[in-house]
Amino acid sequence: MAFEEIFWGFLIALGAGALIGLQRQQSRDEEKGPGVGGVRTFPLIALAGALSAFIAHTMGMWPMLGAMAMIGVFLAISQYQESSRSADPGVTTQVAALITFLLGVLALAPEIPLPVGDRYLLIVASAGVVMALLSFKEPLHRAVARISDDDLYATAKFVVLAVVVLPLLPNRTYGPFNVVNPFNVALMVVLISGMSFLGYIAMRIAGPRHGLLATGMLGGLVSSTAVTVSLATKARESSAVVALAAVATLLASSTMFLRMLVVIGVINPPLLPSLAWPLGIMALGGYGTALMLYLRSRQALHEVPPVSYRNPLELGTASKFGLFYAVVIVVAKGAQIVLGDQGLYASSVLAGTTDVDAITLSVARFHQEGLDTRTAATAITAAAMTNTIVKAALAGWFGGWSLAARVALGLGVALAGGALTLAFIA
Question: How many distinct structural domains can be found in the chain?
């Protein structure tokens, strides 16, 4: 090894140890108790790992194994001492110290199949992740406390479905028009449910203290329709909630457009540029109107009422979406074959009255199979516009005219932007 590589290896190891040690020192000072070490000990542990790896270049693996054994003994003694002083000592610091040693080893270990720059990046990134996990102890514990047992069970069942059942499904097409692929259907269910679940968990973690932003932005990732109906119902019960419900509904509906772009970007990136303008402008129109309403009525905005969501990973919810997606893809394909592009547009409008994800996935798949880009973008945008009109109608039906006027203003701006952009696409 060149001297420069050796020098930088030791420096990176010391830096990684210092990052982790800094956090451990701060935690130790706050808790005012003994511990394995802090801002001095952890860099020394990383240096021990780097030195043992450097010596291993000439003496084989024994120096690293010996150093690891010594560190292990040291950590075991520390754990024993802590357990004698505390009923719940934990092993987080000991594990962090072991990781620090291994990061030091990685800095100079022989025969690592990584370029030097990538190796250093991996070490620094790993140290940063360890530091973040150690720092976020209380927020992580609070987040877990907000997750119910039902959420945990639903997630576990869904993971089994995605990891065990999905790979066993046949990856070929069946049914009318030969478009239903069981593996593809299940994969799309995993994609959409997983994305909704991220928003669901973010909502549970954020809690009520983030109020309007969490209900609107994050609620749009889970179900903008649920946000609309739930807050509209509360707006009819209390006029004080009308302004708040309007802003949250516009935020959720606008987030739906961005969610659609993410889905397209994941499953069919070549189609993304054609949809970025119409869906992006619709999102900006909705967000802009929501901001205007917020600035005009913020003194009247109180704490956001809670919105009830079903866990997107519940098997019943996921299965219904899978069935709906299979029906939509058959109907859309049949309409296209019988009526051409006009039939596809009609099926997009029809599907958009209920859900935009199924038709978005269906048209994206047709595009991969040769559907014209302009036709695909028009069909997906039409579905998004139809779904937006439905949400405006739901706001008026459940929330009354006062809410409907505010929501119609924002969604009307979004629809106008989408329609103008769609005219250029078409």
Answer: 2
| Among 164, 197, 179, CA closest to 318 | 197
Burial class (CB in 10 A: 0-12, 13-18, 19+), 4: exposed
For residues 181 and 366, give the distance between their C-alpha atoms in angstroms, rounded to a whole number: 13
Task: Say if 56 falls within a structural domain.
Answer: yes
Contact 232, 224 (CB under 8 A): no
CA distance 320 to 309: 16
Q: Which of 286, 263, 279, 266 is nearest to 359 (CA)?
A: 263
Same domain, 307 and 347: yes
Contact between residue 205 and residue 146 where contact means Cβ atoms under 8 Å apart: yes
- 35-74: per-residue pLDDT in tens? 667 788 899 999 999 999 999 888 888 888 888 898 888 8
Closest CA to 181 of 356, 368, 325: 325
Indicate the SS3 state at residue 174.
strand
Task: Tokens for 418, please give them.
Answer: 């989408």
Tell me, yes or no, if the pTM score tops 0.90.
no
